[in-house]
Amino acid sequence: MLVKKDNQQQKKYRLQQELEKLFIEEWGGPRSELALVYLRQNVIPRLVSCIITNHHYLENNTFLDILANKLNTEFAYPPAFAEGLSADVVNTAIKVLGRHETPQNHPWHPWEVILRMLTIGKSINDIVEKTCFSESYIEVFRKKYLNFSKAAQGEGEWSDDFARLPELGGYGSQLIRFMEDFRRRFKVFKNYYARLQAEQVIFDLELPVDAGRLLRLLEGMYHLEGRFTRGEMIRLLTEKTGRAVNQCSGMLADRDKGEVTELIDKLIENHWLVSSGGSDTKLFLAPKGARLVVPVLAPRLAGEIMEILRSNKSSRISCAAELLMGKNPEVVVHVIKQLVQQQDPVVPVLFKALFHKVSKPVLLEIIAGCGELGGNTAAELLTGALQHRDSMVRVKACQSIGKLGDRSFYFHLIGALQDKVPLVRENAVKALGMLGMQPAVSHLEKVMNNPEESPSVRHGAREAISQLKAAPEKNRQGDPLT
Question: Using CA atoms, how far apart are residues 250 and 253, in angstroms rounded to an integer?
Fold first, then answer.
């Protein structure tokens, strides 16, 4: 490892020397002492960093354009001068570094990297840091894509249709074809956004795997977490026996064991998987690993659960609950959201089975779901949640009741005005305002006029009173006993 690192340092030093020679001797570089210092301390180190980062692009024509842009915008070389110089810089780099073992020669690839990072929300500064491309090039590219997306709306499906648009003049057929292809992928490929995020993880960590297999690995970890140690997982992924124990069995059997070990270790190191250390420690999905795979997993799990719930099996509730109990909270929370969207009256029955058996984040999502679904079972769960020992559960219950607007909770909310936690009382007064029941005003006035009450609760009571008094007459007739 040290020999390899020393060799890299030697190549870096040699590249610096060769580039300095190129600038000074072949391109008649700067003559003044100040300009020479700037060349040696600023221009060449940044060029070397860019070249080493993009070694795989040294024979890529798009990268040549990007490098010329960098020389022009960052170091003030005239465009015609920068174009010729960039070619010589690349040729010098190839002589020193050699050709990359896996070169990326496709002209679209550098654009893919930029647009992927922009799409998943990376800032221009982040992209500059990771790619060493110039800020100017990335910003111009971003504006071009936004302009293309606007121009492409309602137009034909193929690049020939777009090439004729005057607002896309100067883009060139290659760039137009790439942008249309990228735009179409969101229609053609399911969960393409998740795939882009996976590709970024691979790019950042230099993982020896493709996006599809990384997503399948993390999806498999959801089902297997807590069952295998690091060593057992590596053996499972690389086994070639043909014995499919589960969906991860032999997934990476075509890869060298060292590569798979590197993959798992990098995922643990960078908090995509969790292992607390030790040979017997089991692997779990880390929160960000779970978030990456949620768009793939959640709809599939929700569909499977709904199929079970709508079946005639006597054990359908317990079978559906089994798929969620003890599973990764990040994923289960999103499954709960998907189930709520079904607006099926059987869903609260499943929630009842899960109520005392899930983690706090999942329980809070279940209570929020009850506020969306309503019905007798949801009301029963919300009533129980108002008495829960955890104050955040009681807060969420008040919020859900307010959203639901169920007047049968009137007396429960009046009782919640005596809760020992101010945040619960604050949400109780807000919920009373949302119920639209005039008798609540007298209770709210007592809260508002209580000098010992929290300012936030008194303020909430004042707003709830205003809301009730401003409500239409038909909503102010409610009798809490009916």
Answer: 5
